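Postdoc handover notes: sequence design on the structure in folder B. Input tokens:
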């Protein structure tokens, strides 16, 4: 943690961190909207309009919790779309040495860490809904909390394992910077 704050003294790292936050916010919005669309399409007969997915408002007034299979499907599909957006933005906008990760190996590492992030998201959602009994409109609080945890994980793994210039051996101009 101490090294993290020391690293933020660098303008380049601060700029990357702020860009990463911006991309993370847009990715999260994409994730939430796709999740809501899937939940609405699967349960439109219960919700009182699309915004009912976010607010928990139903036609009957009784709380509605989508089946876990629908919820997990929505999480996985929305996560995949938001990760693809995030990779493109990370590779072309966020990191100064982004060309380090603009290859098959970089994308593979990005995808592996994204799958770990998806696992954290899925397991966290299952624990919150099954163990703590949070569901319905609480789903969004679960997603927000888990999104913050996954954002921190994503920033560090991308910064230090995907788009890190120090990972390249420049013995024969391996990558043209």
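Designed sequence:
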């Amino acid at each position: 943690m101490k090294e993290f704050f020391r690293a933020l003294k660098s303008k380049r790292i601060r700029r990357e961190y702020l860009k990463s936050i911006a991309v993370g916010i847009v990715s999260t919005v994409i994730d939430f909207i796709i999740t809501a669309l899937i939940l609405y399409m699967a349960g439109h007969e219960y919700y009182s309009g699309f915004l009912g997915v976010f607010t928990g408002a139903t036609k009957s007034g009784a709380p509605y919790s989508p089946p876990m299979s629908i919820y997990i499907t929505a999480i996985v599909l929305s996560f995949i779309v938001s990760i693809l957006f995030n990779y493109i933005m990370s590779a072309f906008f966020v990191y100064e040495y982004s060309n380090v990760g603009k290859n098959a190996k970089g994308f593979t590492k990005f995808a592996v860490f994204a799958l770990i992030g998806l696992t954290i998201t899925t397991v966290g959602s299952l624990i919150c809904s099954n163990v703590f009994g949070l569901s319905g409109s609480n789903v969004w609080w679960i997603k927000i909390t888990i999104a913050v945890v996954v954002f921190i994980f994503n920033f560090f793994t991308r910064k230090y394992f995907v788009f890190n210039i120090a990972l390249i051996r420049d013995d024969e101009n391996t990558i043209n910077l």
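Context for whoever picks this up: The chain is about 70% helix and 0% strand. Don't rerun without checking with the PI first.
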